[in-house]
Design brief:
The structure holds two protein chains of two kinds.
Chain A lengths: L3 H5 L19 E10 L6 E11 L4 E5 L6 H9 L6 E6 L9 H6 L1 E4 L12 H11 L4 H14 L4 H4 L9 H13 L5 E5 L7 H16 L3 E5 L3 H7 L2 E6 L2 E6 L5 H9 L6 H8 L11 H8 L1
Parallel strand pairs in A: 3-7, 3-8, 5-6, 6-7
Antiparallel strand pairs in A: 1-2, 1-4, 8-9
Helix pairs in contact in A: 4-5, 4-7, 5-7
Chain B lengths: L13 H4 L2 H17 L3 H18 L3 H8 L3 H14 L4 E5 L2 E4 H27 L2 H11 L10 H31 L9 H7 L1 H24 L18 H19 L1
Antiparallel strand pairs in B: 1-2
Helix pairs in contact in B: 2-6, 2-11, 3-6, 3-11, 5-6, 7-8, 8-10
The chains are: A alpha/beta, B mainly alpha.
Chain lengths: 296, 260
């Protein structure tokens, strides 16, 4: 199994990360964004006055019960749905500003179960779909595809010519992620990326996201997995029935705990452990390694 | 989703509660009767019956209209074709267009008949869930089983197909969004380019459908489904007095339409 190690061993002259050298992450701000779905009898509101900010290079965990509007918010940010009111600002630019469409193209969205969208006869062609749509010259497409495949731990030498449907479930998920990374997004939105992955693949995916974060890509991660969100994200945004119920750093007060429980969430494992040990949960470790170091 | 061709309207009107078999027989008989004898008086009788049925169904006009609007083109086309091509002495001529009184009469009659036909058919589909309709059709098709036509299996196939149309539409929407997020554009370019742009959508949709069909077949087998076996129903069809009344009323309307 070639995991993140394969990437660490990538030749130095190759760009290791999808972000072009020097291109930092993109900042995001939503101001009073509302959206509802057209239905036969009455529109169903999905987002009500959602406002938050995410600075460039930061990572945000988007959480909330099923049906709270997480997926809708991601699609509105990517521009697949236009908000009814309010606006999504990318790098401070709004829809009326010149170059907004180009900024939208630098927002990558990984759908829930993205492996269901694979269609090309080879892994390479599937990953190349996005870059080709961007009109890049073929040499740049090839290098972007190779880099993206490397980043997700599917070295092109072994995987590029394989048929996508001949890969395992976890490999398909990573291939679909490569298809988005090949477009070199500066803001990456992920919708439930960890669902139905085995622990090994999950860990690999965490590794990939950590390295994207280190490369400066802004991350917005919609997930139910509080522990992974705690390990990966700097900030928290909780949605409840389409409204923002909490935004900012994790709040470990009793009220904060109740708020999480009311939204079918819980405190991260290490935060709870730190509370039970009588330590400051805000300084709780993010990973087992950090916990071991702190406790020894 | 906007696919509403006379789509079922959930309600609890008198017509909703009627047996689908009785409704189907009544509507078929009316549809045949509409074509048996050409007279404006007869058409008026059927139109009155159709409007009465529609009013009894309690379906809001907006709902019906949305389904009917696309068919207006067909009605308009019928009208124009009859107007232009019907024989008779023209009272108005322009280049190759010759309009006769006979043509105008025929055009009016045929397009009105089409409207009544659509209205009658819509009342059936608006007040009957598709599953009840297929159940009713399966029952009506039972005599065909003597000819070894697998009517129950056909009905099940239709029911499953209808059941999965909304599911597939949702999946189609998701896949199109995902490919749009990767830069796909389904509205740009000529016909061949647009057709090619559907490949990234259709391939995953087919793969997904086959997988779903496979899973459904396994799940049905796991729940002991056997083709050809005697099946009982959760909601057995039960004819009531109101259904008899419907059939008698329909017979009366048809007789009236034929006699006037």
């Amino acid at each position: 199994m070639s995991g993140p190690e394969a990437v660490a061993g990538a030749t130095p002259d190759k760009p290791r990360m999808p972000g072009a050298p020097g291109s930092a992450g993109m900042s995001l701000a939503c101001g009073d964004v509302s959206f509802s779905y057209e239905e036969a009898r009455a529109p169903i509101p999905a987002l009500c006055d959602v406002s938050f900010e995410l600075r460039a290079g930061r990572s945000l965990a988007l959480m909330g019960a099923s049906g709270s509007g997480k997926s809708t918010l991601l699609q509105v940010i990517r521009g697949l749905d236009a908000p009814e009111t309010g606006a999504v600002l990318l790098d401070g630019a709004g829809p009326a500003d010149a170059g907004y469409a180009a900024l939208q193209r630098e927002v990558g969205l990984v759908f829930q179960a993205p492996e269901l969208q694979l269609f090309a006869p080879t892994a390479r062609d599937d990953v190349a779909f996005g870059p080709r749509r961007l009109g890049w010259p073929e040499a740049q497409v090839t290098s972007a595809v190779d880099t993206a495949l490397d980043v997700v731990g599917l070295p092109p030498a072994r995987f590029a010519e394989r048929h996508p449907y001949a890969l395992s479930g976890g490999e398909q998920r990573r291939l679909a992620l490569a298809g988005v990374l090949a477009m070199r997004p500066r803001l990456l939105l992920l919708d439930e990326p960890f669902v139905s992955l085995d622990p090994g693949t999950r860990r690999q995916l965490v590794g990939i996201l950590e390295r994207l974060k280190a490369a400066g890509v802004t991350l917005l991660l919609a997930t139910h997995d509080v522990d992974l969100a705690w390990a990966l994200c700097d900030e928290l945004l909780v949605l409840g029935e389409g409204r923002v119920v909490a935004a900012g750093p994790w709040d470990f007060s009793t009220a904060g705990g109740r708020l999480l429980a009311a939204n079918r969430l819980r405190e991260p494992f290490f935060a709870e452990l730190w509370q039970r040990l009588g330590r400051d949960p805000r300084r709780a470790p993010r990973t087992a390694a950090e916990a071991a170091e702190a406790l020894s | 989703m906007k696919a509403t061709i006379a789509q079922y309207y959930a309600g609890d009107s008198l017509l909703h509660r009627l047996d689908p078999r009785a409704k189907f027989v009544a509507v078929s008989a009316l549809a045949v009767a509409l074509f048996v004898r050409d007279s404006f008086a007869g058409l008026a009788v059927y139109a009155a019956a159709a409007v009465l049925a529609y009013v009894l169904s309690g379906v809001p006009f907006a709902w019906f209209w949305r389904a009917f609007r696309p068919l207006l083109w067909l009605v308009a086309l019928t009208f124009l074709a009859q107007l232009v091509f019907a024989p008779g002495a023209p009272f108005f001529s322009l280049w190759f267009i010759h309009v006769s009184w006979r043509g105008l009469e025929l055009a009016t009659y045929l397009s009105l008949r089409l409207v009544v036909l659509v209205l009658v058919g819509s009342v059936l589909t608006l007040t009957t869930p598709s599953i009840a309709l297929t159940d009713g059709l399966a029952w009506l098709g039972r005599p065909l089983r003597r000819l070894r036509v697998p009517t129950d299996e056909l009905a099940l196939m239709v029911t499953i197909a209808l059941r999965f149309i909304p599911t597939l539409l949702v999946e189609l929407d998701t896949i199109m969004r995902a490919q749009r997020a990767r830069g796909a554009d389904f509205r740009r370019g000529g016909l061949s380019e647009r057709t090619r742009s559907l490949v990234p959508v259709l391939v995953p949709l087919f793969v997904l459908s086959f997988r779903r069909a496979d899973e459904l077949a396994l799940a049905m087998e796991a729940r002991c489904y056997r083709p050809g076996a005697m099946r009982t129903r959760l909601h057995p069809l039960r004819a009531r007095w109101s259904d008899v009344v419907l059939l008698v009323a329909t017979a009366a309307v048809i007789t009236a339409g034929l006699l006037v």
